[in-house]
């Protein structure tokens, strides 16, 4: 069970758990929304609530429990960590959700506080995977887009929430207003209502974008291949494809180019987080929790995977007095 206890509540962390009465939703990506349940309270930042609603899923945002604070996570607009100031023994607890230490062009900067207990995400658990400096990745994206747009149409595949908006900002800085579909434009409008300036064109079908000339387009990564074929067929121009994801450090994508633009922390950033947080106990969560705990252990940290058997009971009982 992945839960913390505060203000008389037992709180599920980014998912619904038996035995909890309230769920924390760290951000609006779909793999973190299972805590939104009919008949059960959920709380998130107001921006997260609006982004979730833009995808057609509405929930009433419950009040942040007494004794808990939401801190920026730096992952995407509205992403938050859950920070609990003090339990009966004077221990503080923080849950990161997805986070990063590098500053995104389209998200609030992360805030890291000291805490006795750290529950940390594990998306990139490998010591050997290091993201390049963001400014280098951004320059590479801008150069590639400007050069290829001279010769044809450039199509980026990216998450339509978070990564697409950061890409738009990056391209805008290079004087490019990309073409996006309505699904991305719906998310853009929430970003714009929170003062993130985005310059883009909306097209029902991307092939119709760019006024008949070359353009740079952004589509959800899952639709990149079919969109490429459609654009090639209709626009009759050369189409260059690209992805912008941290997984470019791990996998080879079926595209012309791949940029390792991540909105997660790599191992180095995790260590940076831990050095500021100075936790006495570290628990890893997420799909790579076991591997990440082992990587931290081999780097000299005391860390365990949360959400399995006895260790889970340990964290729950150790935080049970937080209320
Ligand atoms: Zn996420």
Q: Which characteristics define this entry?
A:
about 325 residues, alpha/beta, Metallo-beta-lactamase, Chain A, Rossmann fold, 2 domains, 6-stranded mixed β-sheet, 6-stranded parallel β-sheet, 16 strands, about 30% helix, disordered C terminus, binds zinc ion
DSSP strand content: 15-25%
H-E string: EEEEHEEEEHEHEHEEHEEHEHEH
What portion of residues is helical?
25-40%
Q: How would a crystallographer describe the biggest sheet? A: 6 strands, mixed
Could you say what the CATH topology of the largest domain is called?
Metallo-beta-lactamase, Chain A
Q: Which distinct ligands sit in these coordinates?
A: zinc ion
- Any idea what the CATH superfamily of the largest domain is called? Ribonuclease Z/Hydroxyacylglutathione hydrolase-like
Which structural class should the secondary elements be placed in? alpha/beta
CATH top-level class of the largest domain: Alpha Beta
Strand order of the largest sheet: 5-6-7-8-15-16
- Please give the number of β-strands: 16
Radius of gyration, taken over Cα atoms and rounded to an integer in Å = 21 Å
Q: Short description, anyone?
A:
The protein is of the alpha/beta class. The protein is built from eight helices and 16 strands.
What does this structure look like?
With 323 residues, this protein is of the alpha/beta class. The protein has two domains: 3-129 and 264-322, Metallo-beta-lactamase, Chain A (4-Layer Sandwich), CATH 3.60.15; 134-259, Rossmann fold (3-Layer(aba) Sandwich). The chain has eight helices and 16 strands. It has helices spanning 46-54, 134-148, 163-173, 182-193, 224-235, 267-277, 289-298, 309-319, and strands spanning 3-6, 9-13, 22-24, 41-43, 68-72, 80-84, 93-95, 117-121, 153-158, 179-180, 201-202, 216-220, 239-244, 257-259, 281-285, 303-305. It has a six-stranded mixed sheet with strand order 5-6-7-8-15-16, sandwiched between helices. It has a six-stranded parallel sheet with strand order 11-10-12-9-13-14, sandwiched between helices. It has a four-stranded mixed sheet with strand order 1-2-3-4. It is globular. Mean pLDDT is 91; it is low at 308-323. It binds zinc ion. Residues 27, 29, 75, 98 line the site of zinc ion.
């Amino acid at each position: 069970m992945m839960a913390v206890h505060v203000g008389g509540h037992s709180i599920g962390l980014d998912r619904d758990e038996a035995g909890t009465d309230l769920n924390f939703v760290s951000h609006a990506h779909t793999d973190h929304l299972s805590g939104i349940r009919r008949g059960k309270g959920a709380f998130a930042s107001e921006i997260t609530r609006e982004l979730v609603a833009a995808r057609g899923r509405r929930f009433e945002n419950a009040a942040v429990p007494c004794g808990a604070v939401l801190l920026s996570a730096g992952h995407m607009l509205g992403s938050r960590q859950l920070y609990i100031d003090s339990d009966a023994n004077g221990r503080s607890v923080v849950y990161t959700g997805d986070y990063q230490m590098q500053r995104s062009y389209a998200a609030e900067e992360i805030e890291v506080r000291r805490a006795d207990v750290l529950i940390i995400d594990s998306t990139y658990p490998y010591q050997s995977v290091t993201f390049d400096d963001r400014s280098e990745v951004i320059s590479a994206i801008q150069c590639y887009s400007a050069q290829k747009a001279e010769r044809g149409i450039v199509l980026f595949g990216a998450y339509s929430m978070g990564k697409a908006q950061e890409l738009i900002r990056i391209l805008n800085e290079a004087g490019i207003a990309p073409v996006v579909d309505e699904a991305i434009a719906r998310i853009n409008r929430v970003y714009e209502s929170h003062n993130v300036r985005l310059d883009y064109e909306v097209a029902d079908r991307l092939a119709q974008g760019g006024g008949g000339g070359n353009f740079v387009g952004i589509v959800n990564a899952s639709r990149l291949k079919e969109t490429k074929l459609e654009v090639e067929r209709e626009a009759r121009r050369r189409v260059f494809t690209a992805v912008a994801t941290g997984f470019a450090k791990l996998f080879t994508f079926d595209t012309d180019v791949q940029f390792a633009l991540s909105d997660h922390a790599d191992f180095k950033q995790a260590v940076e987080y831990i050095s500021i947080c100075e936790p006495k106990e570290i628990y890893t969560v997420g799909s790579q929790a076991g591997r990440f705990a082992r990587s931290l252990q081999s780097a000299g940290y005391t860390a365990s995977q949360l959400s399995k058997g006895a260790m889970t009971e340990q964290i729950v009982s150790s935080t049970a007095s937080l209320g």
